[in-house]
């Protein structure tokens, strides 16, 4: 009887779990239970190069404690993605002096049918293979729980991933080898000796910046986004492993766990570069006379245009 009751409770919870594409709480209906998901400052967005505004005052982000760290880092299958808990001693300081403490790191990917790409943010409509989010909260608040409802409470450092067929990224070997330990929703394991900086792009100096929201319910509109211009490179084998290892609450493979891009609604997207700092296949170029030549000028923002 106890086992039956447990299964009934779990089944009822699964029926009311939000999803991306199935059930009564799919992405199109999030706003019915989570009103903020229908707001005017939602994420992710399409980063349209012609509309990006150059801001020379945006200095490189100052990341502290992102290098190799000894200890234990819980990693969980939460039914939507794989999430790694991070220590608050990992910190990100932005150009305006705001300091954000790390909370967790998670991933968004594709993999279902013909949808091989699964990043949330796109660049001129181009969707990358995977997107990495390192979630932080403002150090002016005592905890993530307090900060998550404050207008300036959160910040996310986002990185896009490209596929490289010929080489595995050894910095991801430990992470990927543990995915089999959390196949089912709710399962957890522990990573040891983690180096987040090596799991991010090699060049973190250049980025896009804008104000938006969480990309999953409750979609609170209090997130300062920093999307890195450089990319992470993973092998096709590594990507397929991530796309096919985890099951959701309905025991279906977690795939295409990304939200559709949302309207910009007159928001300003800034960048601290004029021409794209990285060249090569998979990168977007901003060459004189090309289709994606930006109209980036050094003029001040309208007052309040980037207020939380």
UniProtKB/TrEMBL annotation:
State any GO CC term: extracellular space
Cofactor(s), by name: Zn(2+)
Q: Where in the cell is it found?
A: Secreted
Provide the coiled-coil residue spans: none
Q: Which UniProt keywords apply?
A: Disulfide bond, Glycoprotein, Lyase, Metal-binding, Secreted, Zinc
Top EC category? lyase
Show the SUPFAM superfamilies listed in the entry: Carbonic anhydrase
Enzyme Commission code? 4.2.1.1
Q: List the InterPro entries hit by this protein, alphabetically.
A: CA_dom, CA_dom_sf, Carbonic_anhydrase_a-class, Carbonic_anhydrase_a-class_CS
Alphabetized Pfam families for the sequence: Carb_anhydrase
Tell me where it mainly resides.
secreted
- PROSITE patterns reported for this sequence: ALPHA_CA_1, ALPHA_CA_2
Domain Alpha-carbonic anhydrase, which positions? Answer: 16-273
Reactions catalysed, semicolon-separated, are: hydrogencarbonate + H(+) = CO2 + H2O
Q: Which GO terms describe its molecular function?
A: carbonate dehydratase activity; zinc ion binding
Describe the family membership recorded for this protein in Swiss-Prot or TrEMBL: Belongs to the alpha-carbonic anhydrase family.
Function statement: Reversible hydration of carbon dioxide. Its role in saliva is unknown.
Q: What is this protein called?
A: Carbonic anhydrase
Q: Which organism is it from?
A: Bos indicus x Bos taurus (Hybrid cattle)
């Amino acid at each position: 009887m106890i086992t039956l009751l447990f299964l009934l409770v779990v089944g009822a919870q699964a029926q009311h779990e939000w999803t991306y594409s199935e059930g009564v709480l799919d992405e199109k209906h999030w706003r019915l239970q989570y009103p903020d998901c229908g707001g005017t400052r939602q994420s992710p967005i399409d980063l349209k190069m012609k509309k990006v505004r150059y801001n020379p005052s945006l200095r490189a982000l100052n990341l502290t404690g992102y290098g190799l760290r000894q200890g234990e880092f819980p990693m969980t299958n939460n039914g939507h993605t794989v999430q790694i808990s991070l220590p608050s001693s990992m910190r990100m300081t932005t150009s305006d002096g705001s300091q954000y403490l790390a909370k967790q790191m998670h991933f968004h990917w594709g993999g279902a049918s013909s949808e091989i790409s699964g990043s949330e943010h796109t660049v001129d409509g181009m969707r990358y293979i995977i997107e990495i989010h390192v979630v932080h909260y403002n150090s002016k608040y005592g905890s993530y729980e307090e900060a998550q409802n404050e207008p300036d409470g959160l910040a996310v450092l986002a990185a896009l991933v490209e596929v490289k067929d010929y080489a595995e990224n050894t910095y991801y070997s430990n992470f990927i080898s543990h995915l089999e330990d959390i196949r089912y929703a709710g399962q957890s394991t522990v990573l040891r000796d983690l180096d987040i900086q090596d799991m991010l792009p090699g060049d973190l100096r250049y980025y896009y910046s804008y104000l938006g929201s969480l990309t999953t319910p409750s979609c609170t509109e209090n997130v300062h986004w920093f999307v890195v211009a450089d990319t992470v490179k993973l092998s096709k084998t590594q990507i397929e492993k991530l796309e096919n290892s985890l099951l959701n609450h309905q025991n279906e493979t977690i795939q295409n766990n990304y939200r559709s891009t949302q309207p910009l609604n007159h928001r300003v997207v800034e960048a601290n570069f004029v021409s794209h700092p990285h060249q090569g296949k998979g990168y977007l170029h901003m060459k004189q006379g090309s289709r994606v030549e930006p109209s980036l000028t050094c003029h001040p923002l309208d007052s309040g245009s980037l207020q939380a």
